[in-house]
């Protein structure tokens, strides 16, 4: 009786987990794969002259700017939980206005890029931001270009900006869409004038000390004060070191838990419960999220090892955030010298528009645009408006502008 009972199939977001396959099996006709540091990176390239089945009639952009070529290809970087699919409808129009090639690739742990085992003691963790940064620069090389325009969405903006800092001479411009970069609240330039009067040497008249003993006593106090300061600095260093050690231990414990069988089960449960809901929540109007869109976002859940790769990506983010070799990204934004466009949806529930606006103020001279009635995915939800804004930005930066509509933030 009990033996005849059928085993219940495990599903995550409607995807049968007993029938997982290699990424190449799920490839589209226009899919390409490139080997980089032992990882098969899935990507797509769109040229202005190539037909695109998913164009859906987005040809309303004027041809009047075709002669004003940017001469720079574009590399598109998706956000967390997304893939090349999220750029599907925008690639052809972007190739058209740039008169150049547009390339989008799946970062490791997402899309159809292979899911390598990071326990191979590789010098470069495939799930790290550093890997994605170097892969981005490698793809610029593959396009035979000296420079490229980097377009990042959400967490992909972190990769785009870090790629700029890694090789600023390779980046013609940055376009940050709903950037998941926390802008600092304080614009700290607190230059305290060290001239807070250094105890003036008193002249004999102002010196009310009747006896030289007080001078000796003052020197002793000064020595003791300096000694106390040094002790305080040492104690502060010890406490800080202990805090960092405890923080490191906490991160390691969390990483071990995430990698455990329970951690994997929890990851599957979270994706199953909130995966498709998160996609709908990313749109201003969830009713516009078609079955085609949901299938595009859940397709990578059919890839072998998708859950473990997602855990490794999370662990890599935890590990990277503790490395203090560089200041936080929010503190380096003012150093960006290339043209920057920031685009956000006014109804973004994941990365609020006010953060993007603050980010634009942190990057001097950047252009800032808000797309009305759009959520976290303006490049999907409002394709024509998004491409039109990018077109105007290109005119402003790479050609003559007749009617500058972009808001330049100083």
Question: Can you describe what's shown?
Answer:
Helix 2 crosses helix 3 (156-166). The chain has a domain at 25-49 and 69-184 and 274-304 and 328-398: Rossmann fold. Residues 1-5, 52-67, 187-208 and 401-405 have low confidence and may be disordered. It has helices spanning 88-98, 129-142, 156-166, 213-259, 261-282, 291-298, 306-320, 353-362, 378-381, 383-398; strands at 11-12, 15-16, 32-36, 39-46, 74-77, 102-105, 148-153, 171-177, 340-345, 367-371, 407-408. A nine-stranded mixed beta sheet has the order 3-4-6-5-7-8-9-10-11, sandwiched between helices. It has a two-stranded antiparallel sheet with strand order 1-2. It is α/β, with parallel strands linked by helices and 410 residues long. It is built from ten helices and eleven strands. The relative contact order is 0.14.
Q: Span from first to last CA?
A: 75 Å
Strand content: 5-15%
| Percent in helix | 25-40%
Given helix and strand content, the structural type is alpha/beta
Major sheet details: 9 strands, mixed
* Low-pLDDT regions: 1-5, 52-67, 187-208, 401-405
How would you summarize this macromolecular structure in one to three sentences?
The protein has 10 helices and 11 strands. It has 410 residues and is of the alpha/beta class.
């Amino acid at each position: 009786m009990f033996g005849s009972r059928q085993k219940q199939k495990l599903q995550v977001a409607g995807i049968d987990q007993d029938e997982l396959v290699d990424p190449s099996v799920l490839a589209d006709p226009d899919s390409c794969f490139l080997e980089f540091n032992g990882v098969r990176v899935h990507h797509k390239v769109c040229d202005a002259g190539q037909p695109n089945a998913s164009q859906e009639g987005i040809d309303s952009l004027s041809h009047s700017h075709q002669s004003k070529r940017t001469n720079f290809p574009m590399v598109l970087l998706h956000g967390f939980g997304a893939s090349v699919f999220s750029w599907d409808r925008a690639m052809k129009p972007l190739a058209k206005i740039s008169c150049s090639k547009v390339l989008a690739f799946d970062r490791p742990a997402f899309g159809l890029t292979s899911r390598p085992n990071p326990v191979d003691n590789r010098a470069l963790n495939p799930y790290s931001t550093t890997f994605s940064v170097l892969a981005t620069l490698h793809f610029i090389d593959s396009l035979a270009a000296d420079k490229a325009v980097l377009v990042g969405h959400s967490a992909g903006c972190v990769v785009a900006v870090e790629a700029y800092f890694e090789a600023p001479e390779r980046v013609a411009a940055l376009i940050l869409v709903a950037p998941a970069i926390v802008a600092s609240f304080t614009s700290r330039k607190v230059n305290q004038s060290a001239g807070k009067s250094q105890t003036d040497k008193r002249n004999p008249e102002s010196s009310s000390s009747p006896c030289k003993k007080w001078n000796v006593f003052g020197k002793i106090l000064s020595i003791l004060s300096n000694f106390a300061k040094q002790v305080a600095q040492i104690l502060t260093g010890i406490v800080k070191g202990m805090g960092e050690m405890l923080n490191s231990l906490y991160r390691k414990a969390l990483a071990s838990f995430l990698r455990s069988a329970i951690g994997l089960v929890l990851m599957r449960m979270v994706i199953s419960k909130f995966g498709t809901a998160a996609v709908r929540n990313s749109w201003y109007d969830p009713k516009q999220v078609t079955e085609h869109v949901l299938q595009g976002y859940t397709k990578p859940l059919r890839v072998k090892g998708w859950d473990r790769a997602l855990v490794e990506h999370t662990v890599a983010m935890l590990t990277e955030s503790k490395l203090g070799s560089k200041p936080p990204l929010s503190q380096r934004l003012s150093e960006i010298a290339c043209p920057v466009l920031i685009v956000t949806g006014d109804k973004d529930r994941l990365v609020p528009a006010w953060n993007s606006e603050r980010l634009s103020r942190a990057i001097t001279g950047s252009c800032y645009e808000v797309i009305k009635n759009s959520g976290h995915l303006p490049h999907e939800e409002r394709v024509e408006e998004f491409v039109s804004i990018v077109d105007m930005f290109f005119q402003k930066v790479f050609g003559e502008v007749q009617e500058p509509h972009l808001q330049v933030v100083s």
